[in-house]
Q: What sequence folds into this?
């Protein structure tokens, strides 16, 4: 009943989902008009989870750990170009959770992807080397071989079909500087203005 979750939801996140319901000893925290949280406009950002001092609100995490068993590693969230600062919670060389750090762009808040979207880090199917299709099969290769193949395909396509047949598709998971370099590569390096970005979709 400290109200931290209510305040972070309304004052910092600006969603106004949680509120104090009832009066006196009957007061509880919940979604407005006693609606189930599943049917509210909650975006599952997890900021209420982050500020709860007693664990009354917890993530649906499968990872079990104690706070003294983990090491915090400060990094930048990789989901978009905003540059939110996060602390990876690492136990036995495995990321088991994420805490929001007080960075200049996020000031201790995170979106749902930044807070809960870390399963890909330790996933066994995660690609760690580039793949090149040879005889219909994807085969692991070196970065040098992959870059050489990309450069040769771009040159071949440019020579055979013209520069307007080449396009680049940038990513929202890159920083603004990386996206700037990407469009510069395509416009100045390759010579085409056909550059798009996944955030526009």
A:
């Amino acid at each position: 009943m400290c109200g931290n979750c209510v305040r972070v939801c309304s004052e910092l996140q600006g969603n106004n989902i949680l509120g104090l319901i009832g009066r006196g000893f009957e007061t509880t925290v919940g979604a407005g008009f006693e609606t189930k949280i599943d049917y509210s406009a909650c975006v599952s950002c997890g900021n209420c989870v982050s500020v709860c001092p007693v664990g009354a609100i917890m993530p649906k995490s499968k990872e079990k750990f104690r706070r003294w068993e983990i090491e915090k590693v400060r990094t930048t969230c990789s989901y978009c170009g905003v540059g939110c600062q996060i602390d990876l919670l690492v136990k036995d060389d495995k990321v088991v959770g994420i805490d929001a750090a007080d960075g200049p762009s996020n000031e201790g808040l995170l979106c749902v992807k930044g807070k809960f979207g870390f399963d890909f880090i330790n996933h066994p199917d995660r690609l760690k080397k580039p793949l090149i299709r040879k005889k219909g099969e994807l085969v692991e290769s070196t970065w040098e071989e992959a870059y050489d193949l990309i450069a040769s395909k771009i040159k071949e396509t440019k020579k055979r079909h013209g520069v307007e047949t080449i396009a680049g598709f940038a990513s929202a998971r890159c920083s603004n500087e990386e996206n700037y370099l990407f469009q510069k590569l395509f416009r100045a390096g390759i010579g085409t203005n056909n550059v798009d970005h996944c955030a526009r979709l």
Notes: Strands lie at 18-21, 28-31, 71-76, 85-91, 94-100, 131-134, 137-140, 168-170, 195-197. The chain has three domains: 4-51, 67-122, 131-200. The chain is about 25% helix and 20% strand. Helices lie at 4-12, 47-51, 112-116, 143-161, 176-190.
